[in-house]
Amino acid sequence: MTVVAANTYAFEGLPDEVAAGLGPMRRGKVRDVIDLGDRLALVATDRLSAFDQVLGLVPHRGQILNQLSAWWFEGLADLVPPHIVAAVDPNVSIVEKCDPLPVEVVVRSRLTGTTSTSLWTRYESGRRRIDGIDFRDGMVKNDPLPRPVITPTTKARSGHDQPLSEADVISGGWVGAERWDQVRTVALELFDRGQQTAQAAGLVLVDTKYEFGIGPGDRLTLIDEVHTPDSSRFWRLATVESRRQAGLEPENLDKEIVRLAYAAAGYRGEGTPEPLSDTLAAETAAAYRQVFEVLTGAPLQPAPYPAESRIAAAVATSPHARRVGNGAR
After folding, report:
1. Fewest beta carbons within 10 Å, which of 6, 154, 202, 251?
2. Chosen domain end from 264, 282, 309
3. pTM of the model as a whole
4. 21 and 138 share a domain?
5. Could you read off the pLDDT of 238-285 as tens digits, one per residue?
6. Pseudo-torsion of CA 313, 315, 320, 323, nearest 10°?
7. Is residue 117 left, alpha or beta, with left meaning phi > 0 and alpha meaning psi from -120 to 50?
8. Are residues 292 and 231 in the same domain?
9. Contact of 43 with 22, CB cutoff 8 Å
């Protein structure tokens, strides 16, 4: 537990001594993963990562991403099976073990972004062929693309993900041609469904990242998270065109709030960033909450802090908890 603002707590992650009683744990940038044997417990923390670094804590970020992903997984299951088995706590999902594909599948519908791998940054530098896709001259930031495009990336355990073209994915042996054809078809279907759902809620789903794995029976499975304000870019629909015509950035309701603030302060990923300020953390938390509520149509019920004992108990008492010896936990 770490204090990030006056009288406001956030969940930094499970202490090692607490996790030790639950099962082997791997600590990622923003999620703690506990091996339960035949399944995994994904513990969504409030750690926020941008520019491939953890910048600080955003209150209730983990809960929002976990519960929103569970909501989306259910609504998208007719398109592709999800890895989720059960959400046993606002911050915890039990999931099937899958063999992850070694690439992330990014689907984009606009020429936008602030990081070094974004379409806009590379287009602005003069490039007109990006990730195997040709772009015309004369485009400006946030312009719509003729149709959604897929820009895969590698999955870096540390440092920056590296962009790939779809041809690179196949020729480099990252994913076989037949499997990749299945992945791209499903990814575009997921994105279309996501855009329709977002539009009905007064949002624009601009771009997003999907991760897939291979589950039992060689089944393509949607893993990680889906259509959250951490993995996706959401704009407020009502003001997109008026702000664009005025030369203003859209109303971002996602992690771009943080990236733009850091970029405005001169940081774009090189060197050590300043810690996330309380003010920026609170602004981000409010945006994430708004996305959750307009999409699901339900108010967020903030889970209590401190969160460590609640989360540990949820994992330990889950029917999927790791058991040893004669069946005792």
Report:
1. 6
2. 264
3. 0.93
4. no
5. 999 999 889 899 999 999 999 999 999 999 888 999 999 999 999 999
6. -70
7. alpha
8. no
9. no
- CATH number, position 309: 3.30.200.20
Can you read off the two tokens belonging to residue 133?
């896709």
Task: State both tokens at 88.
Answer: 């046993």
CA distance 89 to 22: 15
Per-residue pLDDT tens over the stretch 118-174: 999 999 999 999 999 999 999 999 999 999 999 999 986 655 678 999 999 999 999
3-state DSSP of the chain: CEEEECCEEECCCCCHHHHCCCCCEEECCCEEEEECCCEEEEEECCEEEECCEEEEECCCHHHHHHHHHHHHHHHHCCCCCECEEEEEECCEEEEECCEECCEEEEEEEEECCCCCCCHHHHHHCCCCEECCEECCCCCCCCEEEEEEEECCEECCCCCCCCECCHHHHHHCCCCCHHHHHHHHHHHHHHHHHHHHHHHHCCEEEEEEEEEEEEEHHHEEEEECCCCCCCCEEEEEHHHHHHHHHCCCCCCECCCHHHHHHHHHCCCCCCCCCCCCCHHHHHHHHHHHHHHHHHHHCCCCCCCCCCCHHHHHHHHHHCCCCCCECCCEC
Do 208 and 141 fall within a single domain? Answer: yes
Q: What's the CA angle centered on 207, arms 231 and 214, to 5 degrees? A: 60
- Please state the domain count of the chain: 2
| 216 and 131 in a common domain | yes
The answer to whether residue 322 sits within a structural domain is no
Q: How many CB atoms lie within 10 A of CB 301?
A: 8
CB 32 within 8 A of CB 80: no
Buried b (16+ CB within 10 A) or exposed e, 248-266: eebbbbbbbbbbebbbeee
Domain that holds residue 82: 2-98+273-317
Please name the residue that has the structure tokens 């690179």: 168
Contact 133, 149 (CB under 8 A): yes
Structure tokens at 231: 């993995």
